């Protein structure tokens, strides 16, 4: 059981409805005007599989976002080179730095950080 005690009791209904409206959580909170009680059911095998699937989808979304960010950064760097704002050596250094950052972030995603 989770017990949520808001600083401002006027937010009780908003908190309760926000938890209830998020169907992916699968919780049915109740409130008594001062606190919100959220019963957490025991994990079943089916629920574990659902959670693994949701996490896998979020990981894939993060990978897609990272690829898009990388492409945008490389385009910006090439545009800057074309505008003579960067030299060829600077472009290669920036590309290497972008790839290093992407590798670091990919490792963090794989570790689950």
TrEMBL record:
GO biological process, one term: translation
SUPFAM superfamilies associated with the record: Ribosome recycling factor, RRF
Coiled coil: 52-111
InterPro entries to which the protein is assigned, alphabetical: Ribosome_recyc_fac, Ribosome_recyc_fac_dom, RRF_sf
Keyword terms, alphabetized: Coiled coil, Protein biosynthesis
Record bears the keyword ATP-binding: no
Location of the Ribosome recycling factor domain: 1-111
Molecular function terms from GO: ribosomal large subunit binding
Pfam families with a match to the protein in the record: RRF
Family to which the UniProt record says this protein belongs: Belongs to the RRF family.
PANTHER family cross-referenced by the UniProt entry: MITOCHONDRIAL RIBOSOME RECYCLING FACTOR PSEUDO 1, RIBOSOME RECYCLING FACTOR
Name of the protein in its database record: Ribosome-recycling factor
